[in-house]
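Hi W., the nicotinamide-adenine-dinucleotide complex you wanted:
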Amino acid sequence: MHDQQHYIALAGIVAIFLVGVVIILRWEDVPSISVSQAEGEIGKQKYDPAKHMPSKDSIPCYDPGSMTYLGALPADTADQVKEKIKKARAAAEMWRNSSFRQRKLLLKTLLKYILHNQEAICRVASIDSGKPMVDAAFGEVMVTCEKIAWLIREGEKYLKPERRSSGAMMFYKAARVEYHPVGVVGAIVPWNYPFHNVFNPLTAALFAGNGLVIKVSEHASWSSQFYGRIISATLQAVGAPADLVQIVTGYAEAGNALVTGGVDKVIFVGSTGVGRAVLSAAAATLTPVVLELGGKDAFIVCDDADLSQAVPTALRGAFQSCGQNCAGAERFLVQAPVYGRFVDAAVGVARRLRQGPALGDAPVDCGAMCMPGLAEKVAQLVEDAVADGAKVLVGGHLVEHDSGGQFYAPTVLVGVTPAMRIWREEVFGPVMVIVQFATDDEAVRLANDCPFGLGSAVFSRSQRRANAIGRRLQAGMTSINDFATTYMCQSLPFGGVKESGFDRFAGIEGLRGLCVPKAVCEDRFPWLMRTDIPLLLQYPVGDAAFPFVCGLISMFYGLSLRDNLSGLCTVIACFLGVGGKASQKKTN
Ligand SMILES: NC(=O)c1ccc[n+]([C@@H]2O[C@H](COP(=O)([O-])OP(=O)(O)OC[C@H]3O[C@@H](n4cnc5c(N)ncnc54)[C@H](O)[C@@H]3O)[C@@H](O)[C@H]2O)c1
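Structure:
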């Protein structure tokens, strides 16, 4: 059975490859850009927190796996951020008139560069964030390519004016929605995916005709130099304004200046606490905000699930990028009859995971914790849980690596109860909490007993059962018999409910969210019918004005033919000048 599935998957991959070849052959005219990869070479100097202190105007950068010091970047002040917004606005005024052809060319140019330089892109992301190359290829490059491919394929369709029905009363009008660029989008992003977090808002914002000012995290700023050069070269290659994208490096002050500095829409991706501060700062200028915040996804495994599929997926859901994923599986709810087998299988693999610097001499499965202090925070959450009765089956400690890097061991924890901190707080680290449930109702109750509601997953051989559970989960996304695949379908919206935020940044909804949806209404048959205000409604209104309007309402919205005809009679009577008080009575 499994062999058959593998053959089907292989045939699918070959077919997609062939389609890809055809598409690429059609892309001969896409410009090639060349970008210096100075970040490929890094020195040997070790990061020393006492020597390389962050200051108001400088951001020290280092590889969290090897602790190699990468240099310092300037931290933008509020005035500098405002200057960048101004530049982006001037460029966006030009770019809003660009054709979809030009926008697609921009994306194709970018995609071409990414495809030919995957290793360099992953290497730089790995150095900046500590994740292994394969995790970078998955989470940074693959999803970005999918997003670009979707925008090229379908983006125009969803941004073109869309016809809407005009209703019975307005049958002579044509109605449509036009999607106009908002102007300048301000994006504030975290450190977990330094490449994808930049190119995700960038591709959609530019395709929708906007400019972009993006603030990268102070914990992953170094890579923005290389990625910034890719952006500049792409803009230049397709004749787009050079200032269209501005990168801000800095701290909270710079982020706050971006929110309050006059951008037209803010996309904030980060923690729930900072999300609240962003929302409250944006209230002063009534700037719309998309909030993509924390998550603590439930991963439900029913007793009829295929464990040979569920366990490897669960492990990737927990340990991809060392658990530093917003849509990261943190609570594994497993039904009693398969709980023991699931735990044993997960523990067996988790024990064998290799951890270390992403680009060290030895191959690794798990990398480092990117943000300083995060490994200690994870350790504290696990220690608290253990003190309250939870049991560590694998890991459960900080890792002292020769490199001195920021590591927390891949961990499997059981015996966790909803009263523990680790049940409610986002871990954002490599900790697999496995909890047993008895019935589907209990799985739903446990899954929803959480302040967050970003992603979720349900495993069962019965898709019907899995969907029935999935529909009851309080989450913005649900994958059935898989994990986080909703994000690989870039036509789908990405976002959460409850403390995971609101509004959406991907998919059709996210793309249109970067536009002003302008409602337009015009005469359907201008050559035949112009809509003048009837004489009796013109100022000063005639005696029959009120019964006339009431007649119209009955005529179009009456629930029976009798009501409709009665309304019609009133309207005719008013037109003929025999309406008035009598007709008004009749209508009533
Ligand atoms: N839902 C999603 O799509 C998604 C994706 C990735 C990460 N996350 C979340 O991000 C968090 C981890 O990232 P983090 O630690 O960088 O988050 P964070 O909230 O600390 O920082 C995010 C960004 O906000 C900036 N910032 C800090 N204070 C600010 C202020 N007052 N005003 C404006 N900007 C400010 C930071 O400099 C950074 O660029 C986790 O909670 C994770 O779940 C969510």
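The first helix runs from residue 2 to 25.

W.
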